[in-house]
Amino acid sequence: MIVAFSVSPSGGEPDGGVSEAVARAVKVVRDSGLPNSTNAMFTNIEGEWDEVMAVVKRAVEAAGEGSARVGLVLKADIRPGFEGQLEAKVERVEARLRES
Fold first, then answer.
1. Better pLDDT: 83 or 13
2. Of 22, 63, 62, nearest in space to 41 by CA
3. What's the whole-model pTM score?
């Protein structure tokens, strides 16, 4: 499965940013050893259901350190029997773009 998620703790930085908290969450994901990527809006992580959700939980906890509330947006692509889709899905789209 691939999970795309975004965490946003309440409070944050004086300018409204949450980069410090998000960096804590992304570190948890990267330290997990699971395939992952981060972009401006979401962090994507790929693996089995239980391992991915455990990492998301730890990432939310890390982002929420010192906050009374954390918002979580999560989207999952559950496709049993498929691995390596974090990159393969993008490559299929890129191949179509090269064809056109």
1. 83
2. 22
3. 0.90
CA distances from 82 to 2, 3, 49, 73 (A): 10, 14, 13, 24
Residue reference for tokens 């393969």: 88
Residue 17, exposed/middle/buried by CB under 10 A (0-12, 13-18, 19+)?
Answer: exposed
Handedness of CA 82, 83, 88, 93 (dihedral sign): positive
**Quick one: pLDDT at residue 12?**
66
SS3 14: coil
Query: Do the beta carbons of residue 6 and residue 42 sit within 8 Å?
Result: yes
Q: How many CA atoms lie less than 13 Å away from 99 in the CB half-sphere?
A: 6
